[in-house]
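Technical annex, item 7. During the second reporting period the consortium partners agreed on a shared format for inverse folding records so that results from different sites could be compared directly. Each record opens with the tokenized structure and is followed by the designed sequence. A conforming record, contributed by the partner at site C, is shown below for reference.
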């Protein structure tokens, strides 16, 4: 019965009796371990309920009294901290630091944070992921803030994942420079690095000489200018022996970058995300899947507004390793899709926009496809005939508006298709950003 209760109901159940407390705790703790406990005055970035300094004080007292902490993910913002509250925050890290597995620290609007610094004898042996978020930190305060960040990193010997987010439009690379200094000073053997901030060539060169052995890398340029492809190529080359997944993005700013890939023999996943403003200007010269990505499995594009065509142009050798391809919602070029069929002859999974001329290419040229996802983000009316299901069945489905009934009763199964993809087992309709309709195909 208790497994069906939400967090507030579980808290109430623990107050019934000692026996109920013991039983409910078995469900309460796993639930809390998935929740990020946020002490922050503004939930714009956290999108969750936030608590203030008094709640932090009460929380520390409860952890001290019980000798245990159900939470392992925390979000701390400078917006709740004043000079008179530093002892409370120090107590928080002193008491709860041993339980932290994931920590986000936010510098809100350049406020000075921890003038006296954290105590020297701090250990965060459980901390695996640290995220540093600077909203509008000024040049005068960013170095001070990173003194606090460096102290946390020094106290975290098993830190694996480091993320930096700087949304300061006037930042020309100061935050990345501070991050690099912290990495050098701490010597953390991180495996995952995420940078969402403006960078310069010198930062990429510095990262390439630090001896990092990354398995996962995510870079959001945020308005960076890399007209010379050498620094990024040098950095990627330094990680080519270990890097398994790489994501490039320019979500909210207009960057000007030239990205030339070295041979990345361990890379399995490559994701490229463009600007939501449609102003990205990133070019990828000299693409060769065979030479640059000899073991690539997954290739994904989103919101690129035409920047993906460098990867599907003529003259490229086919790749026998790529099995999954995701194309952006604005993709409409059937000739490029024909090129994709040629370049990736062993493709098993495909996501493509819901256009008839594209689906025709899929059925005609991709015989080994096993899973097809049809994205209808920019299309209001969906013609289900393109699934290959007989026209009369599609008409009946549309007429009865029985999508929910199909999902609940699992009635639409094993229907003969009018066109054949020999290995297709299912099609997944993305009706909108939150709903999916899965149609199982039966092939004679």
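Designed sequence (site C submission):
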């Amino acid at each position: 019965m208790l497994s069906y209760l939400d967090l507030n109901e579980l808290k109430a159940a623990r107050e019934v009796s000692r026996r109920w407390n013991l039983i409910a705790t078995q469900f309460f703790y796993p639930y809390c371990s998935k929740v990020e406990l946020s002490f922050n005055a503004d939930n714009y970035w956290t999108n969750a309920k936030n608590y203030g300094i008094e709640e932090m004080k009460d929380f520390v007292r409860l952890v001290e009294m019980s000798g245990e902490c159900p939470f392992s993910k925390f979000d701390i913002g400078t917006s709740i901290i004043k000079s008179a509250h530093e002892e409370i925050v120090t107590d928080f890290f002193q008491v709860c630091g041993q339980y932290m597995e994931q920590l986000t620290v936010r510098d809100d609007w350049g406020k000075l944070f921890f003038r006296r610094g954290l105590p020297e004898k701090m250990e965060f042996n459980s901390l695996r992921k640290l995220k540093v978020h600077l909203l509008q930190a000024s040049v005068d305060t960013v170095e001070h803030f990173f003194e606090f960040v460096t102290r946390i990193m020094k106290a975290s010997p098993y830190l694996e994942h480091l993320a930096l987010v700087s949304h300061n439009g006037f930042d020309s690379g100061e935050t990345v420079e501070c991050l690099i200094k912290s990495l050098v000073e701490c010597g953390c053997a991180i495996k995952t690095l995420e940078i969402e901030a403006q960078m310069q060539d010198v930062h990429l060169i510095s990262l390439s000489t630090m001896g990092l052995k990354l398995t996962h890398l995510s870079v959001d340029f945020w308005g960076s200018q890399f007209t010379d492809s050498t620094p990024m190529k040098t950095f990627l080359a330094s990680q080519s022996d270990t890097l398994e997944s790489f994501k490039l993005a320019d979500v909210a700013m207009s960057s000007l970058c030239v990205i030339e890939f070295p041979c990345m023999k361990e890379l399995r996943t490559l994701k490229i995300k463009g600007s939501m403003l449609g102003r990205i200007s990133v070019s990828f010269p000299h693409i060769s899947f065979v030479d640059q990505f000899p073991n690539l499995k997954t290739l994904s594009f989103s919101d690129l507004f035409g920047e993906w065509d460098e990867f599907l142009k003529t003259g490229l050798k086919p790749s026998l390793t790529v099995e999954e391809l995701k194309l952006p919602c604005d993709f409409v070029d059937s000739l490029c899709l024909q090129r994709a069929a040629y370049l990736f002859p062993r493709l098993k999974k495909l996501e493509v926009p819901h256009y008839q001329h594209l689906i025709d290419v899929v059925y005609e040229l991709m015989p080994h496809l096993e899973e097809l996802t049809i994205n209808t983000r920019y299309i209001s009316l969906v013609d289900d005939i393109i699934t290959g299901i007989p026209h009369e069945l599609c008409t009946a489905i549309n007429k009865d508006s029985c999508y929910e009934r199909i999902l609940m009763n699992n009635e639409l199964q094993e229907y003969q298709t009018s066109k054949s993809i020999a290995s297709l087992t299912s099609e997944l309709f993305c009706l909108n950003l939150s709903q999916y309709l899965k149609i199982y195909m039966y092939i004679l």
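Residues 380-388, 402-420, 428-444 have pLDDT under 50 and may be disordered. The two ends are 45 Å apart (CA to CA). All partners now use this format for quarterly exchanges.
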